[in-house]
Amino acid sequence: MQVDKEAYAIIFGVKKFFQYLYGRRFTLLTDNQAISKIFGEHKGLPVMSALRMQHYATYLQSFNYEIRFRKSANHANADAMSRFPLDISDPENEIEESDAVELSQIDTLPLTAAELGQVTAEDHTVQKLIQGIKHGHSVEAKDRFGVEQHEFSLQKGCLLRGIRVYVPAPLQKRVLEELHSTHFGTTRTKSLARGYCWWPGLDRDIEDMVANCADCQSVRAEPAKMNLHCWETPTAPFQRVHVDFDGPYLDTYFFIYVDAYSKSRSKYAGPSRPKVPSICIARSSASLAFRQSW
Ligand SMILES: [Zn+2]
């Protein structure tokens, strides 16, 4: 979450000194290289799933600034304050503002952060990814579900993709039930899920759940009723014929047509589907039958 915190520090500083900065050119110095790239002047909006970073970038776009990277060793004027020991008895319970958003995301779920963290720690499918995030090295695509690694972060042992909390398999059913407690249909349940949680195959799980929910199915909108259309009665032979292929039956294909007026039937039978277009067969048979009927 280091990047988030660094980004928030910049936003905090810019807000704090808004009246001195707005409308003037200024320089932002950061000792975080990633941040200096993400918020670089001509970068446009960062393509990240973390909505918060996009909000930060959008906010910064209204300022005229240049951003420069400065090594931590030379950044002592700003870092000095953060390195003074603080008189906090339980630093674990001090929540940074940038973390508060993510913790509140976890709180919305029908799980506690502790429970989620514990089950996540036992979930072998994400261990390589978690180690990668902790130690800042990249992991193979298969170990991060084919999703860009920078989209993931860790918060109190819980894995997040953007602001969506990763839910390990043993807890997914409970989250699904919560998502569907008001029996929204598939689309609304999915959009609700997109705001809070994520796991591979989540959309499919929601579709299955709604499809198998008796309550939802009983109130599902029936397709609109169509009026049955009856063919008009023809007034002469071969005004209209009905044709179709049939087969193979005993290795034989049939091309069948019925004259709607006389109900006389004809068929072509062959070892394969006729090569001649059906319209030609129908026309030649029809003209023959027509001549015979006169
Ligand atoms: Zn339902």
TrEMBL record:
Enzyme Commission number(s): 2.7.7.49
Keyword hit for Secreted: no
Keywords: Endonuclease, Hydrolase, Nuclease, Nucleotidyltransferase, RNA-directed DNA polymerase, Transferase
Protein name per Swiss-Prot or TrEMBL: RNA-directed DNA polymerase
Keyword Ribosomal protein: no
Enzyme class: transferase
Domain Integrase zinc-binding: 167-220
Residue span(s) of domain Reverse transcriptase RNase H-like: 3-63
Gene3D superfamilies: 1.10.340.70
Signal peptide: none
InterPro entries: DNA/RNA_pol_sf, Integrase_H2C2, Retrovirus_Pol_polyprotein, RT_RNaseH
